[in-house]
Amino acid sequence: MITYEEALKIIKQNIIELETEEIELTNSLNRVLREDIFSDMNMPPFNKSAMDGFACRREDIGNELEIIESIQAGYKPQKIVGKNQCSKIMTGAEIPQGANCVIIFEDVEYISENKIKYLKDKTSNNICYTGEDVKKDEILLTPGTRITEKEISSLAMSGKWNLLVSKKPKVGIISTGDEIVEPFIKPNSSQIRNTNAYQLIFQVEKFGCIPNYYGIVKDKEEEILPIISKAKEENDLLILTGGVSMGEFDLIPNSLKKIGFKLLFEKVQQQPGKPTVFGRDENKFVFGMPGNPVSSFFVFEFFAKELLAGMLSLKKYYNELNLELAEDYKRKRSERLGRIPIKINEDGMIVPIEYHGSAHINSLLNADGIISIPIGVIELKKGTKVNVRSIW
């Protein structure tokens, strides 16, 4: 059995980056950039008004000002502002030559149809200057960035319509176990509904990959082998849940070996998720995960995401906060790295959620994150600072 850190190191050492493809900006949400994005112009591209008002010379604001033109956003100023002159200007419009500030409408009194008087002694410039936000040829985004709604406007501003991104990894998902039935079936007294597959499908999809679900396979090698072989052929990564422990019907590790996978680890010193299998056959990978839903959720979060992020060349794929415990936490055993779901309270402190073990799937419903308790640590005292892995 190896530690979590050793397992993570093995995963990192075996990562293969996927190839790239070109897509249009409109299809780029949740994709991972594989090129630098430069601005092809200054932003703003000209000195522009930050307010609706009158563009004038600062040295004239105490005098009566003659309005010489009205400048709408999107139109070029036609006149130069001279002494005791101003141009009526709208937000976003180009500042006319000669003007060096904008006085706002609310602080102006009309003396006549084309003359105004500023009612205050001072004014801010109220001008957004050329290149103030972004300089021409400045790098806006770098390879390894996931494109979210925050990045879209910068991409649009750059004028980059066709983007080079990582291809999406294809992830085959297989549930195993004679006791598993699909959610639309009413289980009998010895059956349980298949929660792992649908949880994983959405975890995979949310992470920007393509899930392919192959259904439930019974605990029979003659059924397991052809399905795994097919999924291996059609995907970059296989995820199987169940059948990875030491029981008589836990056939997954040997089945994976029979179809060519070399298993790089089979047990990890963690709870939940001890019987976690990771294997590789050339450019194909597999995770065998425990059948309990919290275990499979955590194994995907801490292991599968690491591999998929590497395939995607994704630089950052999770958020971590360092927060204080709101109360004492104690566990019964400490020989494995422990992980539990937590809630962050109104004071920004960690509150452990009621958690009965790896089958307690509803413990994740209101969880904000996961904390890890190191090997050898039985108790964490109130006020202890702990890293929280955000899961939403």
From TrEMBL:
Reactions mediated catalytically: adenylyl-molybdopterin + molybdate = Mo-molybdopterin + AMP + H(+)
Molecular-function GO terms, alphabetical = metal ion binding; molybdopterin molybdotransferase activity
Q: What is its EC number?
A: 2.10.1.1
Q: In which pathway does it act?
A: Cofactor biosynthesis; molybdopterin biosynthesis
Biological process GO terms, please?
Mo-molybdopterin cofactor biosynthetic process
Q: Which SMART domains match?
A: MoCF_biosynth
Gene Ontology CC terms, in alphabetical order: cytosol
Q: Which residues form the MoaB/Mog domain?
A: 172-310
Which keywords has UniProt assigned to this entry? Magnesium, Metal-binding, Molybdenum, Molybdenum cofactor biosynthesis, Transferase
Q: Kindly name one Pfam family recorded for this protein.
A: MoCF_biosynth
Q: Which family does it belong to?
A: Belongs to the MoeA family.
Function, as annotated: Catalyzes the insertion of molybdate into adenylated molybdopterin with the concomitant release of AMP.
Protein name per the record? Molybdopterin molybdenumtransferase
Protein source organism = Stygiobacter electus
